[in-house]
Amino acid sequence: MAKNDPYAALRIKEFNIFLLVRFALVFGWSMQFIVIEWQVYSLTKDPLYLGLVGLMEIIPAFSMALFAGHIVDQKEKRNLFALCIAAFSLISLGLFFLTWDRIVGDWETQTILIFIYILVFFGGFLRSFFGPTIFSLIALIVPKKIYPNAATWSSSTWKAATVSGALFAGFSIDWIGVHTTLCIVFALVTLALGVTFFIKKKPILNPNIGESVKESLKVGLRFVFSNKAILGALSLDMIAVLFGGAVALLSVFAQDILHVGSKGFGILNASVSIGSILTMFITTYLPVNKNAGKKLLISIFGFGICIIIFGFSELFWLSVLALFFSGVTDGVSMVIRQTILQIKTPDHMRGRVASVNSMFVGSSNELGAFESGIAAKILGPSVAVIFGGVMTLITVAGIGIKNKTLRELDLTVDIEEFEKEDV
Questions:
Q1: Is residue 197 a contact partner of residue 118, using CB atoms and an 8 Å limit?
Q2: I want to staple 418 with a disulfide (CB 3.0 to 4.6 A). Which of 26, 145, 210, 296 is the partner?
Q3: Structural domains in the chain, sorted by start
Q4: What does pTM read for this prediction?
Q5: DSSP at 75
Q6: Cα–Cα distance, 366 to 204 (Å, whole number)
Q7: 134: Cβ contacts below 8 Å, ≥ 6 apart
Q8: pLDDT tens-digit map of 54-99
Q9: Dist CA 330 CA 295 (whole Å)
Q10: How far, in Å, CA of 169 to CA of 40, rounded?
């Protein structure tokens, strides 16, 4: 493979299969998230209930994350991935039944909400295993020297699935309704499960099989908190996602501020991911490894500015534009963060490090949704979004000043070392 080959990871057959599985899974997951948000707000007309969706997912996702990382490092990754997908298909099936008038037509709204929250809760439990499993599996499919390229393509696929899933869900709700849309979600997840078995089982690289949970978690946490590059990147993204989570309130903006309906709702959601995926594809040709720390800080600062503009906007086109560029900046930060994690993490600790990542960043999406719901209830949706953007800017400035290791991080040296090892 030629040096700086933008298609290096795509030349590996199993990685292409992995991308297909991830696309189908995330496409369905993205659709399901949009449908749940739309359905809950349609039933209640109260942004607080949207916040509760995030809370119900973050409680198990956060509390189980470290234990999930331990399990992932102890188990074979392909079968564990398949098990997670199978469990997720049952959640999708349950939501399909909860939107079927023949079943819930006579139910009270609060009863329907309770069952939705229960399934979301179990989805959060499941999510604590997905992140570490996927992160570990990538490293077992591709050689070390193309980790950055594989991370970029994996993130791009995730964003491509998110954008198309969000866009399709918005139109699908309008065309065929919530119930049939969830049937499509179930079919996609089932497809992902079948294709997963075309990936071969992978060796377990952890030399400490049978290690106690307590000792395993202690080692993992010690590694993360002693590595300033990883800790800085995770902290930066966590605060940005926590306070810059305008996406959680898009259903409120679509219905009550911009008045654009379900189609506009889908476009607003999709505009974020379109910006991200275009940026990620560009980074396959123009890697961001040199001066990665500075680029990470600049990108998240730009993200905060975009969120502030969105909060002020009452024009649909300006809101779409602001969200698009928030996606552009988020795409850069995501590629850099994933590359830092892949390069700086030892093989036998990938599950635990990825679980800490899910606690910092993944769970902050749901916690951010809860924070946004509470803030919107107290301050109003526009002020809540603006406040989040300002907090993001303050966070970037603080971490940029205090964390010199992250600020001066350059990943090209690490990649050159991997290339020497392969030679």
A1: no
A2: 145
A3: 10-210 (1.20.1250.20), 211-422 (1.20.1250.20)
A4: 0.78
A5: S
A6: 31
A7: 22, 81, 154, 354
A8: 778 878 888 888 889 999 999 999 999 999 999 999 999 999 999 8
A9: 11
A10: 15
CB atoms within 10 A of CB 224: 21
Q: Which residues contact 293 (CB under 8 A, 6 or more apart)?
A: 229, 232, 405, 406, 407, 408, 409, 410
Residue type at 117 in one-letter notation: Y
* Residues contacting 210, CB < 8 A, separation 6+: 74
Contact 339, 292 (CB under 8 A): yes
Residues 282 and 153: their CA atoms lie apart, in Å, by 11
Backbone angles phi, psi at 210, to 5 degrees: 90, 0
What the block records as the tokens of 416 is 């050159």
CB 216 within 8 A of CB 349: no
> What are the pLDDT digits (tens) for 321-335?
999 998 888 888 888
Please say whether the beta carbons of 279 and 331 come within 8 A.
yes
How many Å apart are CA 303 and CA 321, to the nearest integer?
12
Kindly state the tokens that stand for 238. 């966590």
CA distance 37 to 268: 14
How many angstroms separate the CA atoms of 345 and 328, rounded? 26
